[in-house]
Amino acid sequence: MTQNTVAAPDAPVLDREETISRDELEALQLSRLQHTVAYAYDRVPLYKRKFDDAGIHPSDLRELSDLGKFPFTTKEDLRQEYPFGMFAVPQNEVARVHASSGTTGRPTVVGYTKNDLANWAGLVARSLRASGVRPGMKVHNAYGYGLFTGGLGAHAGAEALGCTVIPMSGGQTERQIQLIQDFKPDAILATPTYLLTIADAMAHMGVDPASTSLKYAVLGAEPWTEEMRHELETTMNIKACDIYGLSEVMGPGVAGEAVETQDGCHIWEDHFRPEIIDAFNPVVGTDAVLPDGEPGELVFTSLTKEALPIIRYRTKDLTRLLPGTARPAHRRMGRITGRSDDMIILRGVNLFPSQIEEIALRIPELSPHFQLELTRPEGKRMDSMTVRIERRETVTVEQSATAARALQEQIKIHVGSSCTVDVVEPGSLERSNGKLRRVYDLRPKR
């Protein structure tokens, strides 16, 4: 945990479900899980087909471990049911729809009843409160508004907490900085790479990023490392906490990190049942579920959703489940190390962009701004990776060469693969306006 001069917030008043025992929580989970599985079976044709094909019935769920007998739900299932085939309520009960970008195929569409929206706002409020935000604070929301769940989800949660929301949305970085200076918000909501973009732009404008009114940042929508947390907290003199969610499960607020411990997001298990499965060899059955502490793919089942109940949704996020700390009954997620579909296989070695970020930020001469370029040189059978990374402003070209060699060596040691490192001028790489693209795959399509 990074130490800085931001004072700890006053102790908040917690929801009852944040303070119950693990036994009470699991009893609540089982009751809600049995209802949700039967509800989905009766109301969503996809689930009736999947359960029947697997030879499983909602009445077979007698204890929490029985959930592992039920089939998974995937993004492809939601795409096949596009647009509204996954909804469990009639259209006149759907108060709002959100959707993914659809850049890699049909978008996934999710719906919410009024009760779903109230629960969602309450869980985002719980997450923000855990991360240090308090009623009466001004909150600058730099998540994108629209079909993406981040902007409106975070907005509603901050309002439910009793905050004053500044609905800036993403982009227009100079305008963001102007409003931060003029409106003096206490907290900011953004992706970590976009907050880094804001901090860099402040410095280039002659504004000290550590001099603003901001005290707390609640950051999500992309994986980030402890090294990135240290970078942001040191640069901006803030406390930075993680928030987790995905639209298919709800949106932001599925889990939130406590500012007093900063040791991973507590999953709000009164509304979601998490599992970890083997990321690369999932098999339907109880043996597919890994014990707490083992790394694998995160799977979620909703416990209270009405419009779109989701059963054993494979998130493709790679993490592990850990005991609760600040909220003892609610298990924590380890940091997301990557997504199974974002994994780079380079000459037989598996690696993720977050690994490069973690290594690079341990080298003082290098900045957090980097890209990975994958190529296959003509006439070669083996792929190559080039890490393009900016040097820091005060670093000379000669120092850059030493830093490049150090990064190359550390990647070889810790990842196990050789690469080329190209240290480039400050400000020369693309900046984030929301989610940042790290990987450029230029290899010939097979």
Automatic annotation (TrEMBL):
GO terms for biological process: phenylacetate catabolic process. Residues 348-443 form the AMP-dependent ligase C-terminal domain. The gene is paaF. Pathway: Aromatic compound metabolism; phenylacetate degradation. Catalyzes the activation of phenylacetic acid (PA) to phenylacetyl-CoA (PA-CoA). Monomer. It catalyses: 2-phenylacetate + ATP + CoA = phenylacetyl-CoA + AMP + diphosphate. GO terms for molecular function: nucleotide binding; phenylacetate-CoA ligase activity. Keywords: Ligase, Nucleotide-binding. Belongs to the phenylacetyl-CoA ligase family. This is Phenylacetate-coenzyme A ligase. The keyword rRNA-binding does not apply. Its EC number is 6.2.1.30. Gene3D superfamilies: 3.30.300.30, N-terminal domain of ligase-like (3.40.50.12780). NCBIfam families: PA_CoA_ligase. It is an enzyme of class 6 (ligase). It comes from the Bacteria.
